Amino acid sequence: MKRYYFVVIPIIITIAAVYYMTTPHENKSNELTPQMIMQNGSPILGDPNAKVTIVEFGDYQCTYCHLFHQNTKAALLQQYVDTGKVNFVFRDFPLNGPDSVWAAEAAYCAGDQDKYWQYHDELYNNWAGEKTGWVNQKSLDMFATTVGLDLDKFDKCLSNNTYKQKVLDNQKFGENIGIDGTPSFIIFSGKQITKIVGAQPLSQFQQVIDKFQNS
């Protein structure tokens, strides 16, 4: 992800139009909704009924996704998610190839044992560059052991490619709504929607969230 910018889209129909024009459709029921932005991703962090939702499109090998995780995410969760103001969803956008897909599959396999977010964090905490080979069977098993997974169940899930199509579907969905870099964030509250791209500081998110909370 080489570009940093901050984009505000006033209403959700802007993204809906992009999605509607770039995917096969038969009727208006296929137009994009907030539920569609959230579905098929991670378990929801925070109150499902929170006024504001953040959906991150990310790649476990992405340099700037790692920087967001290291520098911004913890404060964002503490200030907004833990207080019930915001909920957070992660959707896969594996730009860096098969290893990124594999890492995303592993996170969902961990989710089968109710450890999705622990494994997600373990991947980013052990990030070692883009396309450097750090995502491999040994490392994925090590992360699984660290977060307390049943390794036999985890390995069976991975070897069966149980979640590969889910990961690829997330990437395709992102492409269809105009996601082209990671991390990208869709922040919405009702019909208000904003897109933020890059490893932005907390202040960028605060600006949007506070505006939505007060509207």
From TrEMBL:
<protein>
    <submittedName>
        <fullName>DSBA oxidoreductase</fullName>
    </submittedName>
</protein>
<comment type="similarity">
    <text>Belongs to the glutaredoxin family.</text>
</comment>
<keyword id="KW-1015">Disulfide bond</keyword>
<dbReference type="InterPro" id="IPR013766">
    <property type="entry name" value="Thioredoxin_domain"/>
</dbReference>
<dbReference type="InterPro" id="IPR036249">
    <property type="entry name" value="Thioredoxin-like_sf"/>
</dbReference>
<dbReference type="GO" id="GO:0016491">
    <property type="term" value="F:oxidoreductase activity"/>
</dbReference>
<feature type="transmembrane region" description="Helical">
    <location>
        <begin position="5"/>
        <end position="22"/>
    </location>
</feature>
<dbReference type="Pfam" id="PF13462">
    <property type="entry name" value="Thioredoxin_4"/>
</dbReference>
<keyword id="KW-0472">Membrane</keyword>
<comment type="similarity">
    <text>Belongs to the thioredoxin family. DsbA subfamily.</text>
</comment>
<keyword id="KW-0676">Redox-active center</keyword>
<dbReference type="InterPro" id="IPR012336">
    <property type="entry name" value="Thioredoxin-like_fold"/>
</dbReference>
<keyword id="KW-0732">Signal</keyword>
<keyword id="KW-0812">Transmembrane</keyword>
<feature type="domain" description="Thioredoxin">
    <location>
        <begin position="21"/>
        <end position="214"/>
    </location>
</feature>
<keyword id="KW-0560">Oxidoreductase</keyword>
<keyword id="KW-1133">Transmembrane helix</keyword>
